[in-house]
Specification:
The chain is of the alpha/beta class. The protein is built from 18 helices and 18 strands. The chain binds alpha-D-glucopyranuronic acid (GCU). Alpha-D-glucopyranuronic acid binds next to loops.
């Protein structure tokens, strides 16, 4: 197995955290019966962290069950860390404080203890004072999930960091890396992981059979020790594809009975299983449409089968016609999620969650928020984002996505007065739901640094932190990640902050303009190809001609803008009110149209593309100052990526500018070089 790094849980670099040096013991004030794997893992984590960061391993002192959580010792003059369960706190939450010379982590369940443990380690790595800590934290989102698009042959769909560490040669891997993955994920609050690709084919269809269940169980137990529930993606047509039935009709009694029996077996063998994620009737995947049934029929059949075991069915709303005719101006892919699901609001069982991509298309650098958020009022909802950078530079370009996620979470839907943001909805506040949260298509693989670009780890780290504490700003999360990963040097912090915070705006500037999206090379989705998808079946058009560009989604066009609640609908529907960054998503606009910024569309295109490249050049230059300040291997890897990003940003700039100059015939006011 390839070696790999420990990222933000690296304990090899000494932290100068004087106070930690006095900590000699860990005292577990938790009864034997309540001491599960999470508590043991918390203790081990603390011991390892102290040994590495401080140089001495605290000894374990048992104090079984005596306590209500009150700290001990005091008078002895020695310091320790005390773990205690206390009733009355919310699930998974913790209180980290100091009392009588001890640091106390108090929680009402062992997950809370684990999260408090990782928080304490984070504080140590950031060299914060420990004995004045007083932090009470409760995760805002109930479900904080990673979706792996890993295939059983070891490849990863849209993976940019090597191969899978869950699968190789159609076998499930459980090894040291599995445990370290679980530690890293849990340390930022992740509590659910889907291990296999949403496109379930071939061997993956067999994950729910004898062939794999023992290994699935083993993997689920490693996860469970870190508070993570294992989920699998499911093939909707499994009864047929496993050769057992000739139909997967959700309203057939025989099919229902098959699933009931199947789930009895699966949950019997894998009691820690959380449930299943399903992509149905989408991009060639089977689903209830084959039988003239609805998504609610399909989801509810499965939900009934898993309900006796507390299982959850997560059903994706990424459903659209991928066989569109580009000549057809009426069909609008952006509408499809809404049109397919809105009419079903209220018809899903309580253990079904609809998983909705952040935007109506597909993880572009800029999209409006999906109109199902604020549309649905009687259905459990989860927000799906993609930290695998499929359309945002594939971890070859730096693109820190947390500012985008923050914008999405803060978007007001106007579904009711107050508590109406996406964040309110997916944290359960708006409708009092508990089956909700956020999922990210994750960016990891078996590369030694896990994420290809070292700084792409900030998206993995940040996603977890954001779900746990969405009140943190993207800047705060970035700063934290830098300090826990690279230490507390001011210059390192300042430069890496600049790089992270400049990266999404830069990427947006030199790629497709003003919310129109796409313009990428078909299939692999890397690099520019302005007309790559223009005459294809995928429903992703820009409609550029010699006069203008953009898709008319107003009331005069596809009507998509009107799917939002007021005042959003009127804002998006009106060219004069629509925010610049989404203008071409909603309207077909002449190149000579004046944006709210005061620039014409064409001048904006030229300017932003030149500026985007300038920012990348500046980023690369700043980065080079960190030679000798970052670990050498990491520095070399990142330097190579920045060199590539500079070159490829130029390719984007020149292709986009040339294309629009040739279409429009309008010169750049500043007479810069356009080919
Ligand atoms: C995108 C991506 C596919 C993926 C799909 C999905 O279209 O390119 O690889 O399968 O999203 O989210 O299901």
């Amino acid at each position: 197995m390839m070696g790999y790094e420990q990222l933000w849980l690296d304990y090899t670099r000494k932290a100068s955290c004087g106070e930690a040096e006095g900590i000699e013991y860990i005292c577990v004030r938790i009864s034997d019966t309540e001491q599960d794997a999470l508590i043991q893992n918390s203790v081990k984590e603390l011991q390892d962290a102290f040994e590495g960061l401080v140089g001495s391993r605290p000894t374990l002192r048992r104090d079984n069950g005596a306590g209500t959580g009150a700290a001990l010792s005091g008078s002895t003059g020695r310091h320790g860390i005390c773990l205690a369960l206390r009733e009355g706190m919310g699930a998974e939450s913790y209180h980290l404080f100091s009392e009588k010379g001890d640091i106390v982590i108090e929680a009402s369940d062992s997950r809370g203890i684990l999260y408090g443990t990782f928080d304490l380690i984070r504080q140590m790595k950031m060299e914060e004072p420990l004995f004045t800590l007083d932090r009470t934290k409760a995760p805002l989102m109930p479900m904080r999930m990673l979706n792996h698009w890993d295939n059983m042959d070891g490849s990863i769909e849209r993976g940019y960091s090597g191969e899978s560490f869950f699968f190789a040669d159609h076998q499930i891997l459980v090894n040291d890396r599995t445990r370290d993955y679980a530690r890293l994920a849990a340390s930022v609050g992740i509590n659910a992981v889907v291990i296999n690709n949403v496109n379930v084919k071939d061997a993956a269809t067999w994950l729910i059979t004898d062939r794999y269940l023992d290994k699935v169980k083993e993997l689920s137990e490693v996860f469970a020790g870190y508070g993570i529930r294992l989920y699998m993606s499911l093939n909707y047509a499994a009864p047929v594809e496993l050769g057992e039935l000739d139909s997967a009709d959700p309203l057939s009694d025989q099919v229902g009975a098959w699933w009931n029996q199947k789930m009895k077996t699966v949950f019997g063998r894998v009691p820690n299983l959380g449930g299943f994620l399903i992509k149905a009737d989408s991009e060639g995947r089977p689903g209830p449409f084959t039988y003239g049934r609805t998504h609610a029929d399909g989801a509810n059949m499965l939900a009934r089968a898993v309900a006796p075991y507390g299982g959850i069915i997560i059903w994706r709303c990424f459903v659209y016609n991928c066989m569109q005719d580009w000549r057809d101006y009426k069909t609008d892919r952006a509408r499809s999620g809404y049109d397919n699901f809105m009419g079903l609001d209220g018809s899903f069982l309580d253990n079904v969650i609809l998983q909705i991509k952040n935007g109506p298309m597909d993880f572009q650098v800029r999209e409006p928020v999906h109109p199902l958020f604020g549309g649905l009022t009687k259905t459990n909802q989860m927000l799906e984002v993609q930290i695998a950078q499929e359309y945002t530079g594939q971890q070859r370009h730096l693109c820190y996505l947390l500012p985008m996620f923050q914008e999405i979470l803060q978007f007001r839907t106007y579904v009711k007065e107050g508590d109406d943001t996406v964040r309110d909805i997916v944290s359960g506040r708006t409708f009092g739901q508990h089956n909700c949260g956020m999922a990210a298509v994750v960016n990891t693989g078996n590369d030694e640094n896990w994420t290809g670009h070292d700084m792409a780890a900030a998206n993995w780290y940040g996603f977890g932190r954001l779900c746990f504490e969405p009140e943190l700003s993207a800047e705060e999360i970035a700063r934290e990640w830098i300090r826990v990963t690279y230490g507390n040097d001011d210059q390192v912090e300042e430069i890496l902050m600049f790089l992270l915070m400049s990266s999404w705006p830069a990427y947006e500037s030199y790629t497709s303009p003003l919310g129109i999206g796409w313009m990428v090379t078909p299939n692999n989705h890397y690099g520019p190809s302005v007309d790559g998808y223009e005459y294809s079946r995928w429903g992703t058009y820009h409609r550029a001609d010699h006069e203008g560009i953009g898709v008319d989604r107003s009331h005069e066009g596809t009507g998509y803008a009107l799917l939002y609640r007021e005042p959003n609908a009127s804002v998006y529907d009106n060219k004069d009110k629509c925010p610049d960054e989404l203008l071409l998503f909603f309207h077909h606009i002449p190149y000579t149209w004046k944006l709210r910024s005061g620039k014409t569309v064409i001048q904006h295109i030229y300017d932003s593309h030149f500026e985007g490249v300038e920012i990348v050049d500046e980023m690369a230059e700043q980065f080079m100052k960190l030679q000798g300040k970052l670990p050498d291997r990491a520095y070399e890897r990142m330097a190579a990526r920045f060199r590539e990003q500079k070159e490829h940003a130029r390719e984007w700039r020149d292709q986009i500018n040339a294309y629009f100059y040739r279409k429009s015939g309008i010169l750049d006011e500043r007479e810069r070089k356009i080919y």
